[in-house]
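Hi there. Long-time user, first ticket. I'm pasting a complex I've been working with (about 654 residues overall). I'd like to know whether the download I got is complete or cut off, because the file seemed smaller than I expected. Thanks.
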Amino acid sequence: MSAERLTSMFAARRAGNSTALLPFMTAGLPDPGHAVEMFEAMAGAGADGFEVGIPYSDPLMDGPIIQEGGARALATGVGLEEGLEIAGRVVARTGLPALVMTYANVVVQAGPDEFARRAADHGVSGVIVADLPLEEAGPIQEAVERAGLGMVLFAAPTTTEARLRRIVDAEPVFIYGVADLGVTGERKVASSRAGELAGRIRALTDIPLVLGVGISTPEQAAAVAASADGVIVGSALVRRVLEARTPADAISSVATGVREFRAAL
Amino acid sequence: MKLERPDSRGRFGEFGGRFAPETLMPALEELEHAFEAAWVDPGFRAELDRLLKDFVGRPTPIFEAERLSAQLGFRVLLKREDLAHTGAHKINNAIGQVLLARRMGKPRVIAETGAGQHGVATATAAALLGLECEVFMGEKDIERQSLNVYRMQMLGTRVIPVTSGAGTLKDAVNEAMRDWVGTVETTHYVIGSVVGPHPFPWMVREFQRVIGDESLEQLGEDLPDVVVACVGGGSNAIGIFYPFAGLGIDLVGVEAAGEGIETGRHGASLGEGSPGILHGTRTYLLQNADGQVQEAHSISAGLDYPGVGPEHAYFQDLGLARYVSITDDESLEGVSLLARTEGIIPALESAHAISWIAKAAGELQGKTVLVNLSGRGDKDVQQIAEARS
Ligand SMILES: Cc1ncc(COP(=O)(O)O)c(C=O)c1O
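Hi, the file is complete. Here it is re-exported in full:
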């Protein structure tokens, strides 16, 4: 079961009283030929697993940096098949758990069962769908779990207590705690609401909790690390790709970034 | 059967729903409950009716287009939404939603706009009711509808250019949604058509059905055989269709065929698309096999959208309405036709409906055809002049 790679990683981090680092990177960056190397470099820099972005034309949960990363990947022909292939090679080379992150229409057009089966064939551990709330998640979560993968569900600072209970009852493989209102992107000041959200979730369940969205500096990551099993960092790394002049620069810059986050956790 | 309202999950049959980031879900639930309560509250309805009457100028007339009828050989009636304050049907929905936002205690509203009509309507309602307003508009649309950009600014609204994608309506919706994900606690998103996650398609239809309800009352026993409206997101069309649905009247929605269906550069989501999820709702979309949404193309910014309201998807599948399309060139002919026979310059969007009745004159002989003239063409004059030169 592919989900086990993920759950045992969280268990090991919990046993060691430390926090997992899950970098987000769009599949196909800095270019399709260097995509696997990019993830390998992040593994070497201390990543515990990956959120592999499958680009989508209308990413309404993403800010300008990840939008631009996705648009670049799409323009070089990276879609679902290429994204899953990259994820599969990353898992095979690094042995680390990989989740794929995309939007509902990409899953629905492939068909939830077909999507989940292909992801499982590539060794993927879990699925994150940014525009899939609990109410619509049922058929996709069932397909994902039938294929032996874990489904991730979100909880946000705006999530009411009643909704939070229903999210917990759906038993996601982990809860993605949205650390700040707003779309993905860098923030100068860390949100004050991540800690409060984490506290509310911890009071209800010990399902692993991973915080993401708006965590853009090692200091910000360190500030929330104690309250979560893992931290997701995306825009701060994708920005390094957008700013780099060559694929080699992009890879080494991202690795540096991952190393800094790892050191802070 | 047409549905009074979608089911508890916001579905019209297999269409609709609520595919939104978790951050927005509590706000969508709050909005649903606030609208439900307002819609049965006589105080809210009285205030809305007062504004629609004294501020918007409703009821809009139904005009017997005699010279056009004579030329086409069948009877044409025009529902004059172009005469509503600010020049299009969009104000019906904007006033309703901004009133609701005020009732919900939200000090700020945002909107997306394509042709600029919805942006102007929202800016107008916000000025009237004293709310802060920002409007997202694609770069390309800012260029082709510059008159409306100035109007919004004069009304005290900030127009935010959207540079992602093709710089048209789809991108403006994305950007408005993204803003909303960050500001949802103090901001209401005034969606401009019957699209988006539940409760928007239902709520916007309820605010726009005044067009059809009024028409039924104005016509009395003299019911039309055919009702025609242009379809971008589908708000003016569902607004006039809904009260007529199920009465055995032929309901015809006209989509944008752009440069021609065969060129692939069009906005005919119902005619040429397939079911998928965009902007929080399951509906017909222009998309590739990988689920990537394709750019739409239309000379009219308001029809330049690769999706459509989920209730139209439902109407199409049930046969409650049928959907056809008209090219850019044909729509320009529609503008001339109405201008010269009736002294009315229609919006490019509305001209799609006019053009279709001229094109379908053969099958319409002997019938009475009610066309929803969704807006006036002032905003398009410069663009039309350029297209002709
Ligand atoms: C005059 C006019 N008609 C029609 C439309 C298309 O929208 P809908 O299909 O929601 O009526 C617009 C949109 O901007 C418009 O301005």
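A couple of notes from our side: The longest strand of chain B covers residues 250-258. The interface with chain A takes residues 9, 17-27, 164-165, 170, 174, 177-178, 181-185, 276-280, 282, 285, 287, 289-294 of chain B (CB under 8 Å).
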